[in-house]
Amino acid sequence: MRPNRFDYPTISDIRQIITDHTLCLFLICSIYVHMADDILSHSKRALGRGAISNPAVRFDRLASNHIDDGWERDEELPVLRTQVRDEMAKTVISRNKSPDLSFDRSINPYRGCEHGCIYCFARPSHAYLGLSPGLDFETQLIARPNAADQLRKELSSPRYVPKTIAIGTNTDPYQPLEKERKIMRVVLEVLQAFNHPIAIVTKGTLIERDIDILADMAAKGLVRVGVSVTTLDPKTSRAMEPRVPLPVARLRSIRRLTDAGVPVRVMVSPIVPALTDHELEAILTAASEAGAVAASAIVLRLPREVAPLFKEWLEAAYPERAARVMGRVRELHGGKDYDPAFGKRMTGQGEWAAMMLQRFHLTARKLGLDRSLPELRTDLFARPPQPGDQLSLL
User: How many separate helices (H) and strands (E) can be counted in the chain?
Assistant: First the structure.
């Protein structure tokens, strides 16, 4: 008989081993399920992005959809990092004929915006680049490094007639990328050299870097700035506009700009019904105390892909308010998520819109913000001598 080299386990031993391993496997699976929930929750609330999804581009003939095939993912998704591509602009001054806009020309140093504001009406413009208005808009950015050189050429044309150029009306020129690329800075230097009037709109505190140029232009009546403040609540701001400087920082920028002699208008926009509308008076008061000399307000508007993106975010960030917010939005826009009609798209319609407008005017008048800023000067515009010009030889 062959001797046993070890004792074989009994049936009861095997049962105990299976039980222990089953319990261990159950605990491991439970841990991974909770991790997956945390990852999903994190991706919706703390990823540092506004949009939750990346809807298909409306110009594409084909679209891809995620379908659950029964295989669960338990690995953590990679961090969604910002990617930047350069575009050599053939023209840099864009024109528009919108009757409810106060400008007919604008400049955008960047396409897409890392600020990630979920309500941004400019998101649909990314579709023209073959990119999604969702996460692509805030992660797939286009920089225009030759913007200043191209602007110099366009302003040097003998056919060019000066009129205020708006900057920041589509995407923010002082988004985080500007700190590294400095395209807005050199664009300002060109405009300063030509004594060209400009109106800047921003949420970015990086504008403080350029106070030296802005103060010089303001002294000549060539610049005004609009600073957007949507809420005073840092929690709401971080959820709604994840990579925008906090409200207190934007109020600080208003103070520093006005102390330097730059006229600043506070822009309470967008007003989100049932979410930020109760802050209207408080925002105007805080901005006035920070030095703002004028004010404006625009209600929430959700063109094209912005509506489904906003509703998706709303359900994730404020599920208890989602129905009420969207109910008010539709009340503002004639029963639809958005009405693009000129004269209505920024003010809305109906009783709630009229009440908001009345509240705005009463508070603005009380604070001395109910005035229009002076027209910027165009008579100082002059083309500086260029290399090769006869005057440059003198």
Answer: 12, 10
Reported CATH class of domain 83-367: alpha beta
For residue 103, what are the CA distances in angstroms to 74, 234, 258, 340?
A: 51, 32, 23, 18
Contacts for 57 with CB less than 8 Å, ≥ 6 apart: 127, 130, 131, 132
Give the integer Cα–Cα distance in Å for 234 and 232: 6
pLDDT digits (tens, 9 = 90+) for 184-203: 999 999 999 999 999 999 99
**Cis (ω within 30 of 0) for the bond into 270?**
yes
Q: Whole-prediction pTM value? A: 0.82
Residues 142 and 88: beta-carbon distance below 8 Å: no
Residue 229 near residue 289 (C-beta atoms within 8 A)? no
Sequence-separated (6 or more) residues with CB below 8 Å from residue 293: 258, 263, 264, 265, 368, 369, 371, 373
* 8 A C-beta contact, residue 200 and residue 103: no
In the block, tokens 């989100």 appear at 272
| Among candidate residues 144, 128, 148, 147, the one with its CA nearest the CA of residue 136 | 128
Return the bridge partners of 86, or none.
143
Question: What Å distances lie between residue 240 and 243, 261, 309, CA to CA?
Answer: 9, 31, 12
- Give tens-digit pLDDT for 136-174: 999 999 999 999 999 999 999 999 999 999 999 999 999
Of 203, 197, 172, 201, the closest CA to residue 374 belongs to: 197
pLDDT tens profile 340-394: 888 888 888 999 999 999 999 999 999 999 988 889 999 999 998 876 665 544 4
List CB contacts of 297: < 8 A, sequence separation 6 or more.
267, 268, 269, 271, 280, 356, 357, 360
Q: Cα dist. 215→36, 219, 306, 352, 382 in Å?
A: 51, 6, 36, 40, 19
Burial of 238 (0-12, 13-18, 19+ CB in 10 A): middle
